[in-house]
């Protein structure tokens, strides 16, 4: 039986696009894209790919109430695995317990270095010579779950924060679809 993925986004969704492009040629399905932000361009990318795009607002709701709504929508679509692709909300146990060991995030640093926001700036400011991205299981902590895969990039002398961000993003676009395929093949 093919694995059914949901992708959660809050923004532009370039990682979502890489996942959609990879799913086009594969025996698995991105069933649903959900965003907490109505204006997330990721929702438009989903619609263009013919995939159901759902906006679930988070404002004026407790984290638990928002997560319960999210779980209901995902379960009603028979979702097996959840991929966080720039989803800017912290998920509570209400959500994580509904998809145990089935929620995966991409983070733009070589974890455990530089968790949290502005990871690329943190790496740039620290002067590291190697940066990258991490795909990991989501647990109750901030970017702390078990690591599945990482992609590394060099930091050049000529880099500024923006060029480093762009180079890290290009490795994100390779690593995340790779992990999605591994999941679909039962290898994760
Ligand atoms: C990426 O850098 C991802 O690692 C982080 O949020 C960003 C989302 O970018 N979690 P995009 O919306 O996929 O372009």
Low-pLDDT windows of residues: none
Biggest sheet record: 7 strands, mixed
What's the mean pLDDT score? 96
Strand-and-helix sequence, N→C? EHEHEHEHEHEEH
Strand count: 7
Count, helices: 6
Distance between the ends: 16 Å
Spatial strand sequence of the major β-sheet: 3-2-1-4-5-6-7
Describe the structure.
With about 190 residues, this protein is α/β, with parallel strands linked by helices. The protein has 6 helices and 7 strands, in the order βαβαβαβαβαββα. The chain has helices at about 15-25, 40-50, 65-75, 95, 120-125, 160-185, and strands at about 5-10, 30-35, 50-55, 80-85, 105, 130-135, 145-155. A 7-stranded mixed sheet has the order 3-2-1-4-5-6-7. The longest helix is centred in the C-terminal third of the chain and has 24 residues, at about 160-185. The radius of gyration is 16 Å and the shape is globular. The protein starts with a strand and ends with a helix. The structure holds 5-O-phosphono-beta-D-ribofuranosylamine. 5-O-phosphono-beta-D-ribofuranosylamine (GRF) binds near residues 12, 16 and 172. 5-O-phosphono-beta-D-ribofuranosylamine binds near residues 11 and 106.
Give the helices and strands, then pairings.
Elements (H helix, E strand, L loop, with lengths): L3 E6 L4 H10 L5 E7 L5 H8 L3 E4 L7 H14 L4 E4 L8 H4 L6 E5 L11 H8 L3 E8 L9 E8 L6 H24 L4
Parallel strand pairs: 1-2, 1-4, 2-3, 4-5
Antiparallel strand pairs: 5-6, 6-7
Helix pairs in contact: 1-6, 5-6
This protein binds 5-O-phosphono-beta-D-ribofuranosylamine (GRF).
């Amino acid at each position: 039986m093919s694995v059914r993925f949901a992708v959660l986004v809050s923004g532009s969704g370039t990682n979502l696009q890489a996942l959609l492009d990879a799913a086009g040629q594969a025996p698995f399905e991105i069933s649903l894209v959900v965003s907490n932000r109505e204006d997330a361009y990721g929702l438009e990318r989903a619609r263009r790919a013919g995939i159901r795009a759902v906006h679930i607002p988070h404002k004026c709701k407790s984290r638990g109430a928002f997560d319960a709504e999210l779980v209901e929508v995902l379960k009603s679509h028979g979702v097996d695995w959840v991929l966080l692709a720039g989803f800017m909300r912290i998920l509570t146990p209400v959500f994580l317990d509904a998809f145990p060991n089935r929620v995966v995030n991409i983070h733009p640093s070589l974890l455990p270095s530089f968790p949290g926001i502005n990871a690329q700036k943190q790496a740039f400011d620290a002067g590291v010579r190697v940066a990258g991205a991490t795909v990991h299981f989501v647990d109750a902590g901030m970017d702390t779950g078990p690591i599945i895969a990482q992609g590394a990039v060099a930091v050049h002398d000529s880099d500024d924060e923006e060029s480093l961000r762009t180079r890290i993003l290009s490795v994100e676009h390779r690593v995340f679809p790779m992990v999605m395929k591994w999941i679909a093949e039962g290898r994760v």
